[in-house]
């Protein structure tokens, strides 16, 4: 599981984006993504949406970033 090198609130937008991308990578469900994001130290609301075709799973994560900006990966 990805772990933030410092508190999520102290990350830059770029660091937070990379962390969220690593949470999404290899996930097979929205619940798994939300769990990974929580384990990485994010304490806010996480919005996810996804679609699946056979074994292919594609997801999008949206959060408010550490400095109040919107992050979508």
Structure in words:
With 73 residues, this protein is of the alpha+beta class. The chain has one domain (8-72). It is built from 2 helices and 3 strands, in the order ααβββ. It has helices at residues 13-24, 30-39; strands at residues 47-53, 56-64, 70-72. A 3-stranded antiparallel sheet has the order 1-2-3, covered by helices on one side. α1 (13-24) packs across α2 (30-39). The chain starts with 12 loop residues before the first helix and ends with a strand.
Please describe the structure with a list of short key phrases separated by commas or semicolons.
73 residues, alpha+beta
Number of helices: 2
- Span of the ends, CA to CA: 17 Å
Mean pLDDT: 88
How are the strands ordered across the major sheet?
Answer: 1-2-3
> Strand fraction band?
25-35%
Globally, the shape reads elongated
Helix content: 25-40%
Structural class: alpha+beta
What count of structural domains?
1
Catalogue the unreliable spans. Answer: none
The sequence of SSEs as H and E is: HHEEE
Radius of gyration: 12 Å
Number of strands: 3
Describe the largest sheet. 3 strands, antiparallel
SSE topology sketch:
Elements: H1 13-24, H2 30-39, E1 47-53, E2 56-64, E3 70-72
Give a nutshell description of this structure.
This protein has 73 residues and is α+β, with helices and mostly antiparallel strands. The chain has helices at residues 13-24, 30-39; strands at residues 47-53, 56-64, 70-72.
């Amino acid at each position: 599981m990805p772990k933030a090198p410092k508190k999520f609130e102290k990350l830059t937008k770029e660091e937070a984006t990379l962390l969220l991308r690593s949470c999404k990578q290899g996930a097979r469900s929205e619940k798994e993504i939300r769990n990974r994001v929580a384990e990485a130290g994010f304490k806010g609301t996480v919005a996810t949406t996804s679609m699946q075709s056979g074994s292919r799973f594609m997801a999008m994560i949206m959060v408010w970033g550490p400095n109040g900006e919107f992050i979508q990966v």
